[in-house]
């Protein structure tokens, strides 16, 4: 079980990295704002069903707790736009009591039918896995010397961002 | 483990050529003067960079290296680092050596491999003493942790050098230092003092945990340079534990039991 959790965190890191990737390359023409998508993804994160990707199934190893939803001290952090292989993505995290309680995409690629199809599962998976990373309770990450370039896509960067 | 009751704040600034993160955990971290103390910690790190940077022509380290400045005339912190560098060389049997032969046939003094851990450890100590909350300072993957009045464990993820976005193991640490040496982000940047050339590539990374980031960092660097037998060096130092990663997986010293481990890394 534990092994699965870590594998999941690994995937998360890659995805969470999107959140803090500082770039201004976002082509405005191909970006759409999609608040509705985010609103629907976050609360479903507790579910054990693996909607997309093999790794998502690992959430059964200790389902991300969406519970708590403590009213005090809750805030929202919006990351920079990241270039992904699918196109520009921007992620918004809701942080409550130092924990990420929700993650959703505020921008996602919207170029053609294939993109639409990717979005329909990739972004919910992203939200779910951001939550799983939190559930793994990793406070900090030690790795071989991180340069500025490496940092922006690192798990440490995402953790920093969640607490900024 | 409900972490909701514990507030946590983070800062990130680019210092010494890398992003340095400071996290404060606990109620005291939210005190009115926390902001100023964190800024002072960054100032302290910037001042260290001015003294020690090998990239600044006018840094004291560069001037010492060029023979323009004697250690006894340098800033007291420089003398402190020189002393630590001597200890590091003795501790590691020369696997860590700030005095290295250069291409010009002369011996050059470059304590860079020590300065980061020392400066980060120092910043964390100063912050924790002033604030009384749990403090972490992370620079380039090396972490200094200082406990506050009501300390709690930090869960430290150890990055997989084969896939840096992946966490290989998790080690709970209350206070002290965690340092990782390897080639994941910069390519081969470690030099074997014995040959002056790049170190062997038997290991992909070495992580060392112990009471002080200074020695965790020195031991990680030295163990990486030593390659396959590097873990023995860490094992021989009381209070320090290590985890080495090679292509087949990872091994640890006898006292280290990572909380979580992955074995299926072939994917």
Number of strands of chain B: 13
Helix-strand makeup class of chain A = alpha+beta
How much helix is in the residues of chain A? 25-40%
* Largest β sheet strand count, sense and barrel closure of chain B: 8 strands, antiparallel
How many DSSP E strands of chain A? 6
Radius of gyration of chain B: 19 Å
Distance between the termini of chain B: 31 Å
What class would the helix/strand composition of chain B place it in? alpha+beta
Name the helix and strand elements of chain A from N-terminus to C-terminus, one letter apiece: HEHEEEEHEHH
Please tell me what the overall shape of chain B is: globular
Helix-strand topology string of chain B: EEHHHEEHEEEEEEHHEEE
Largest interface: A-B, 44 and 57 residues
Mean pLDDT of chain A: 46
What Rg of chain A, in angstroms, do the CA atoms define?
Answer: 15 Å
Rounded average pLDDT of chain B: 86
Summarize the structure.
The complex is a heterodimer of chains A (164) and B (267). Chain A is of the alpha+beta class.
Give your account of this protein's structure.
- The complex is a heterodimer of chains A (164) and B (267).
- With 164 residues, chain A is of the alpha+beta class.
- Chain A has 5 helices and 6 strands; from the N terminus they run H-E-H-E-E-E-E-H-E-H-H.
- Chain A has helices at 2-19, 35-41, 113-135, 148-152, 155-163, and strands at residues 31-33, 74-78, 82-84, 87-96, 99-109, 140-142.
- In chain A, strands 1, 2, 3, 4 and 5 form a 5-stranded antiparallel sheet that branches.
- In chain A, a hairpin with a 2-residue loop joins strand 3 and strand 4 (87-96).
- In chain A, helix 1 crosses helix 3.
- The termini of chain A are far apart.
- Residues 1-71 and 112-129 of chain A have low confidence and may be disordered.
- Chain B is of the alpha+beta class.
- Chain B contains 6 helices and 13 strands.
- In chain B, strands 1-2-5-6-9-10-11-12 form an 8-stranded antiparallel sheet.
- In chain B, helix 1 (34-52) runs antiparallel to helix 4 (112-131) and helix 4 (112-131) runs antiparallel to helix 5.
- The radius of gyration of chain B is 19 Å and the shape is globular.
- The model of chain B is unreliable at 261-267 (pLDDT under 50).
- The interface between A and B is large, with 44 and 57 residues.
- Strand 6 (140-142) of chain A pairs parallel with strand 7 (154-160) of chain B, so a sheet runs across the interface.
